[in-house]
Design a protein that fits this description.
Length: 95
């Protein structure tokens, strides 16, 4: 546990102390910046006064992105599988 790093991340005007692996620092800091930027966009686009509402909207946005990537990946995997099977059939028919 001696190789752990203690950092502070600020999100929505609150500071969160974290103990992390050094390899996680860059990703966490980038994620915090993205959240802050998204908070700014939501606050500018909508008249939201409650930070909890803005954070819920951010969470929904990020979760939707993750789910969409999963759906897209499944579609691509199915498409690749179909093409590989077709190619395999062509090779078997040619041999």
């Amino acid at each position: 546990m001696s190789n752990q790093l203690k950092i502070k991340i600020s999100i929505a005007n609150r500071v969160y102390p974290l103990t992390i692996n050094p390899s996680q620092e860059e990703g966490l800091r980038k994620a915090a910046k993205r959240i802050e930027a998204m908070i700014g966009q939501f606050e500018q686009s909508y008249s939201v006064r409650d930070k909890q509402d803005v954070l819920a909207m951010c969470a929904l946005q990020f979760a939707a992105q993750v789910e969409q990537k999963t759906i897209d990946k499944e579609y691509v995997n199915e498409e690749v599988q179909e093409k590989l099977e077709a190619l395999n059939e062509l090779l078997h028919n040619h041999i």
